[in-house]
Amino acid sequence: MIREFMTANTWEHWSSALLAIAIFLALFYILRRVVLGRLKKLSTRTDTLIDDFFYEVLSATRVLLAGAVSLYLAQLFLIMPASLEKATGRIFVALLLLQTGFWVARGLDFWLRHRLSHGEPGEQGAREMTRSLLSFLGRVVMWSLVFLLILDNLGLNVSALIASLGIGGIAVALAVQNILGDLFASLSIAIDKPFVIGDFIVVDDLVGTVEHVGLKTSRLRSLSGEQIVVSNNDLLKSRIRNFKRMQQRRVVFAIGVTYDTPRAKLEAIPLLVRSAVEAQDNTRFDRAHLKGFGAFSLDFEIVYYVNSADFNLYMDIQQGINLQLIDDFKGLAIEFAFPTQTLHVASIPPVSGSLSSAVDRRQLQASAVPGSHREPV
Q: A single GO CC term, please (predicted)?
């Protein structure tokens, strides 16, 4: 077949085919540069997304398109056997399908990027996470479809292939069910958004900031600096505490004073605490009460709110409250309680003279016996 193909075409046929390919390639690169340049300038001058979309899509044009069209032009000038012409046509369609895949992938990425670019400033991490996951899944579906179309174009029985893949897919799904569980968990995270990139979360005994959400695992950066890798399925099975979404922080702390504090001063302590809390910015006082009687102190419980999720701000406020309470208590001579214990010893009645002498004689006799020992009374 190849010998017949070579002998059937003269140098005139070959030169015409090569000239057509050269002219098309030159026009292709010139036209690509001119069109992309015009679209780029137009996209910078206008606010519409149409020109931006076409620029993004056409910039994904690969050499595959040039090769496919060149192959099609070459066969127009050559005398080819029917089988070779059929194979050339199939290769031409396969290259066009591949180039179409690149166009669709770039268009999908452009649409997701602009679709998820609008929203609250604090949701940037959630949008980026959703975009990356949806873009990956969209590319998987699209390239799977392109692959099946190419196989169908090459003459393979795609229906039988899909059926066999379905049967084999069940066995594979049973074998990799943990991986599939993590995959669907990543979809749940992307859709439901229990946390996003940049959130500070607590999962069981794990504490850290979300750095990456992948198809199988998510990665946290702990407070001590190391990276924690957790499977997505385990994350969704756990109780997640998302501190980044905290709108206000409820603070409960206690103080104790000594039992000899007068009643008038005890009644003044809630007012002092309220004044100390309200003196700080971004706080809302809730209550302060004499809660109970401790082992060595009269215990007060104080509750207030910090109107921010910033932990450092909360610690600064608590420090300011503590310092002011120390000054106020010192001014009113109120003493903070600390662990103490009072030992009450009952008085021992005096011992009579005859009984005392008898005890002394027994102690002397015991000390005179070799090897004997008696604890002093």
A: plasma membrane
Residue whose C-alpha is closest to residue 252's, from 317, 305, 314, 313: 305
Q: Would you say residue 24 lies in a domain?
A: yes
Please say which residue of 243, 276, 298 terminates a domain.
243
pTM above 0.70, yes or no: no
Q: Is position 81 within any domain?
A: yes
Distance CA 173, CA 180 (A): 7
The domain in which residue 43 lies consists of 1-115
Of 92, 193, 170, 186, whose CA–CA distance to 136 is shortest?
186
For strands 217-221 and 206-213, give the pairing: antiparallel
- In this prediction, residue 76 has a pLDDT band, given cuts at 50, 70 and 90, of confident
Same domain, 93 and 134: no
Question: How far, in Å, CA of 36 to CA of 34, rounded?
Answer: 6
251: left (phi over 0), alpha (psi -120 to 50) or beta: beta
CB neighbours of 292 closer than 8 A, spacing ≥ 6?
299
